[in-house]
């Protein structure tokens, strides 16, 4: 969504859409304002679904293009990407759930079946000294920890830097967010590392909300107890994404019931993924919403939640718990009980102080 138009809420829609305190988690005990995301919240390992999924409806391809499709590409194993390195300090910390209760938000992150948790997050409050401005993000890495570590360190920094250049022009917030995504992608690609990360962010500024995503991390709004999806997952099965990929000379293939680019990656947008960069773009879809007193909270989560729990189920669970961390933990438990083997990261943001 471009320009000054605001998103119209529809529960069933699929939208295409001074020092600042930084909150996250690290092993040593710190005060809330000292907690830093960079030290712990970048996680590694290739994401891989093990549950059986029925093959989606067969997608149509142009016969000529299908004949010319290149050989299938495979996501390299972590040991290949990192030369067999293992970060024991981080792995020991990540054996248990990460739980964070911050200023106006709560978060729970749980490692899946991989040795190392791939997910990450970032929170920056009081941007430019304004208590009504904050940035929240959840990230889901694949193919190694390098991309998500880089996103944790750089994405919010690049967005805030771009916002600073446009601080007096509220209608340019979307442009600044887009610039932050694309700059982070460009910087990471220059490193020559093959891993990638899906990203979803929410920027709050003086009663306005800008949500952005590249990949299948999702943002859902609760308004008077009803769930409204504010982002649309970028997966290869999405028709418009498949058409974009084909028009760029790529192809999609169904592997074990999941549509993938060149038989490899199931998401069609992400930061990184240099070996598929021609088709896996970092350009985010951005939606803008004017907050009202009916707006209660946001849920920003990786696909480990959304693959097993509906938007409304998630909103209902958070609504029935006074503490956002408690709601997050119960959602993690539900997703795990339904067979999720993936990493799960859930952040709940209270909107009342931003209206």
Automatic annotation (TrEMBL):
The keyword Manganese applies. Keywords: Hydrolase, Magnesium, Manganese, Metal-binding, Protein phosphatase. Its cofactor is Mn(2+); Mg(2+). GO terms for molecular function: metal ion binding; protein serine/threonine phosphatase activity. Residues 1-30 are annotated as: Disordered. Residues 1-21 have a biased composition (Polar residues). Residues 104-351 form the PPM-type phosphatase domain. Pfam families: PP2C. InterPro entries: PP2C, PP2C_BS, PPM-type-like_dom_sf, PPM-type_phosphatase-like_dom. Its EC number is 3.1.3.16. Gene3D superfamilies: PPM-type phosphatase domain (3.60.40.10). GO terms for biological process: signal transduction. Belongs to the PP2C family. This is protein-serine/threonine phosphatase.
